[in-house]
Amino acid sequence: MFKRWLKRPKKSTASVLLLGPRRVGKSTYLKINFPDFKYFTLDDLDILALAEKDPKSIFEGHSRIIIDEIQRVPKLTIGAKFAIDEQGATVFMSGSSRIGLLDASADSLAGRIEILELPPACWGEKQGESTHSIFDEKASPLQIKEAARRFELFLKYGGFPEVVSTDDEEQKNDILQNYRNTYFTRDLSLLSNIQDVMGLRTILNHYALSIGNTTQVENFRQESGLSHVTTQKYLGSIYQSGLGFSLTGYQFGPSKRYIKGAKSYYCDAGMITALGVQCSRGQIIENFVISEIEKRRKLGFYKTDQLYFYKNTSGFEIDVVIVEKKSIKAVEIKSTCKPSHKDIKNLQEFVGTDNKNRSGYLFYLGEDYKKIDDIQCIPIAAIYRGI
Q1: Residue 117 CB: number of other CB atoms within 10 A?
Q2: To the nearest whole number, what is the mean pLDDT of the chain?
Q3: Terminal C-alpha separation, the chain
Q4: With contact defined as beta carbons under 8 Å apart, do 339 and 368 qualify?
Q5: 3-state SS class at 294
Q6: Which residues, 6 or more positions from 170, have their beta carbon under 8 angstroms from its beta carbon?
Q7: Among the residues of 97-227, which ranges form H helices?
Q8: Residues 93, 95, 96: CA angle, nearest 5 degrees
Q9: CB 80: neighbour CB atoms within 10 A?
């Protein structure tokens, strides 16, 4: 396994809840980085039965312990609280779903744990440490060339570690198909108590086809034939499992109010290939860039709780808005090799209302850094090994 970019806990004695989708390498990360911790996984039926019967017993006699897949028995957080408070233990827990877990941990572990997130691998993470800041520094011309050669492969198969670790395209495809039939459907159904697996698959497919558009529950309901409440539950399970995420619309101005609606994206480019959905190239590239930014946000490289999109009253949109303290980055994504003034029009209007605190960036398919008026044009290839 290649070294991940996830930062270690801020304090060496800190207890941690590590969240992330299935198959992103949480177990491997914990085992490699903390080999002296006693390891238990709730994928083991005997350990699972013990955890359900007597949550405290697993922690007895262990000052440093890892509990993997803790979402299977959220009440184990009560045992973790006792071990941390009464035994001075350091407890690392990993979870593949937020369903029921964050509420349980918030009640029993508030102020006692550090919550970290591990997404699928960033583009270039396998090749080593990050080399530059995507927004503030330029990647070398040689690295841009290397990224351009690697782009289509990563765009298609994505960054799940098992996929990244093989160079054989047939194996990559087989792995993703296996994920679709197990972790993306069966496991998600079990975790969320979903009865209609075919309905879930329809939701997953329509989710991909809706990339770049405002998420409308009614459209998902019509496609799946499920009730409105069930449709909301199935959509919620995609977010809670970490397989998908949403960008909330935000209206900047005196009221700074959230606007109704959100846009949804998959956590990794490989999800679209795994599902076999025929999205447009524009959708695939938009999901790729936004998911790569989101991965880096989850790893802590951007100091913001979430990403936004922007839509004003006249209808023009900004794909991504990153709000960090007083700094606001506006990002547009275009599937063109030759950006023009037309491509930056929305960015110019957005940035122009507050030049002091706002900056605009256009990600495009060329290989050169450019500046059109006050807008920075960044090659999508610059995301490779960048943070």
Answers
A1: 18
A2: 92
A3: 20
A4: no
A5: helix
A6: none
A7: 101-109, 141-157, 161-164, 169-181, 186-191, 197-209, 217-224
A8: 160
A9: 29
Going by the DSSP 8-state scheme, the letter that residue 2 receives in this structure is P
State the Cα–Cα distance between residues 385 and 135, nearest whole angstrom. Answer: 13
What's the CA gap between 343 and 340, in Å, rounded? Answer: 5
Q: Would you put residue 51 in left (φ > 0), alpha (ψ -120 to 50) or beta?
A: alpha
**Distance of alpha carbon 175 from alpha carbon 157, whole angstroms:** 10
288 strand-pairing partners: none
Residue recorded with tokens 């447009």: 280
CA dihedral over 115, 118, 124, 125, signed as positive or negative? positive
Domain range list for the chain? 15-117, 125-184+243-383
| pLDDT tens sequence across 159-183 | 999 999 999 999 999 999 999 998 8
Q: How far apart are CA 84 and CA 62, in angstroms?
A: 11
CA atoms within 13 A on the CB side of 186: 7
Q: Using CB atoms within 10 Å of the CB of residue 298, give its burial: 0 to 12 exposed, 13 to 18 middle, 19+ buried.
A: buried
* Residue 367: how many other CB atoms lie within 10 Å: 15
Pairing outcome for strands 90-95 and 64-68: parallel
261 has a pLDDT exceeding 80: no
Is the torsion defined by CA of 328, 209, 22, 73 positive or negative?
Answer: positive
- State the DSSP code for 277: -
Is residue 203 within 8 A of residue 231, CB to CB? The reply is yes
How far apart are the C-alpha atoms of 17 and 8, rounded to whole Å? Answer: 12
Q: Are strands 308-311 and 244-250 parallel, antiparallel or unpaired?
A: parallel
d(CA 146, CA 174): 26
Q: What is the CA radius of gyration of the chain?
A: 21
Domain 15-117: which CATH number of 3.40.50.300, 3.30.450.20, 3.30.200.20, 3.40.190.10: 3.40.50.300
Task: Specify the DSSP element, H or E, that contains 262.
Answer: strand 258-266
Sheet with 258-266, edge to edge strand ranges: 258-266, 244-250, 308-311, 317-324, 327-333, 358-364, 375-379, 370-372
16-36: pLDDT as tens digits: 999 999 999 999 999 999 999
